[in-house]
Amino acid sequence: MSRPAVSMAERRPTRRIHIGSVPIGAGAPVSVQSMTTTKTADVEGTLAQIYALAAAGADIVRCTCNEEEAAEGLAHIVPRSPVPIVADIHFHHEMALAALEAGVQGLRLNPGNLRKEAEIKQVAAEARDRGVPIRIGVNAGSLHPELYKRFGGATPEALVESARMELALFADVGFEDVKISVKASSVPLMIAAYRLASETFDHPLHLGVTEAGPPPAGLIKATAGIATLLAEGIGDTLRYSLTADPVEEARAGRQLLEALGLRERKGLDLIACPSCGRAEIDVIGVAAAAQRALEERNLPLQVAVMGCVVNGPGEAREADIGIAAGRHKGHLFIKGKIVRVVQEQDMVSALVDEAEKLVAEGIEARLAAADVGAEAAAEADRRALLERKGTDVNHTGERIDHIRRAVASGQRAGGPGEGDDAR
Ligand code: SF4
Q1: Is any atom of ligand 1 closer than 6 Å to the C-beta of 191?
Q2: Regarding beta strands 60-64 and 269-272, do their DSSP bridges make them parallel or antiparallel, or are they unpaired?
Q3: Residue 162: how many CA atoms within 13 Å on its side-chain side?
Q4: What CATH number does residue 370 fall under?
Q5: N or C, which end of the chain is more exposed by having fewer CB within 10 Å?
Q6: 243 and 301 in one domain?
Q7: From CA 111, how far away is CA 131, in angstroms rounded?
Q8: Are residues 87 and 25 in the same domain?
C-alpha cells in the first residue's frame, strides 16, 4: 500500500525487447531473473524449482543447456513453465541451436567462450528467424584472451568492447534483438563497466555482480552493485548470483526493486526499530513472530514493529500498519493513528488480524472502525513512560555526575606531587 514519496532517477531510455511475454527496456518494469541449479534433463525437478522461483518473484528463469539431454529437457519444460525460459550457452553453439529447437524464449551467449564467428552468426541468424532475443553475457572472469591482452586486463573498456564486437557480428546477419550484461565479481569494476555500457549502447542492460558468493556478504555485494546502477537509472533486468538456494536470488531481486519503488509491492515489507534502552518488549522476537505470521498470509503491506510508544508510532507513521509496546500493552496504529490498545501477549495476533482487515476493507474503513479512547489511552501510556524513564535513557547525566565526583575526590586526595614527571 505504501509508496515512496521520492521517486528514483529517470530511467535511461533503451530499446524494447521481449523474453516471451516479459517486456524488457524502454520503460518496462525492471524484471527479476534467476537460474535453476537442477540438471535441466531432470524435467520434474527443474519445473518444481522454476515454480518456486516464480512464486518468490522471478519473472524469467534461466536453465543451463550444456548437453543434448538438457535440450530435450527444455522441450518438456518450456511449455509447462509459468515464466519464460532462457537457455544458458557456453562453448557449444550447437547447444544454442538445440535450445532454439526446444522452444526457449531467450538465449544467453558468452562471447568469452563461444568465439568462432561463423558459429556465432549461425546462432544469431537462427534466433532472428525465430524472433528469439539473445543476451550478450560478458563476464570479467571469462573475457576473450585477446581483449584481456589488448586492454591489459578485464577493464570496463575491455568488457564493453567484447559486447560491441559480438553486436557487430550479430549486425552482419541483421540481428539486433539483444540485451547486454558486463558482469564482474568486483563491485567497482562492474559499476564502471555498466556505466560505460549505458553510454555506449541503447540496448537493454541485464545487471548482476557475478559470483557474489553466499549471503550475507553475497547479498551485500550484489545489492551494492545493482542498486547503485538502478539509482542512476541504469538497468532493465537483473539477477542476484548467490551461492544459495536460487529462491533467495529471486526474493532478493524482487525485494530490492520494491525497496527502490521500481516494482509494485507484492509482499510484506516489515520495518522494525533497532531497539534501545526504551524498548518495552523483545523487539527481535516480536518482529520475527510478526514476520512469520504475516508472510504466511502474503499481505502486500508495510508493517512496523516498534519497541516503545514514546517514538514508535510517530517514527513509523508512513507504514500502513504497526504496533508499538508500552506498559505491557500493544498500541496498534494505522498510518500513525492509534486504533486499538491490546494486551502485550496479544500484540502479534492483533496486528495480523488488523492487517487482514486492512487489506480487505482499506485504510479509511479501518480508521473509521478505530476503538473510541484508544488514542487517549496510548497518550497516557506514552506520558507515563516518559516520566518513568525521562529522556536520558542511556543515563548520560548520571554518568557525568559520577565522573565529576571521581575527578573531584581524586583532586582532594592530592594532585601530582613534586618531582612527578608528566612526560
Ligand atoms: S521505537 Fe522506542 S524502543 Fe525502538 S528504537 Fe525508537 S525509542 Fe528505542
Answers
A1: no
A2: unpaired
A3: 36
A4: 3.30.413.10
A5: C
A6: no
A7: 20
A8: yes
Q: Give every residue of the chain whose pLDDT is below 50, as ranges.
A: 416-423
Query: Is the minimum distance from the CB of 308 to ligand 1 under 6 angstroms?
Result: yes
Counting ligand 1 atoms within 8 A of each CB, the residue from 311, 327, 381 with the most, and so the one to mutate, is 311
Q: Is 276 in the pocket of ligand 1 (CB under 6 A)?
A: yes
The total of structural domains in the chain comes to 2
On whether the pTM is more than 0.85, the answer is no
Q: Residue 85 belongs to a domain with what CATH number?
A: 3.20.20.20
- Give residue-wise pLDDT tens across range 375-406: 888 888 878 877 765 555 556 666 777 787 88
Length of the chain: 423
**Ligand 1 centroid vs 262 CA: distance in angstroms?**
29
Cα of 218 from ligand 1 centre, angstroms: 30
Amino acid at 237: T
Between CA 310 and CA 287 the distance in angstroms is 18
**Ligand 1 atom closest to 315 (CA):** 1
Contact assessment for residue 279 and residue 310, using Cβ atoms and an 8 Å cutoff: no
Same-domain check for residues 161 and 55: yes
- Beta-strand pair 237-239/269-272: unpaired
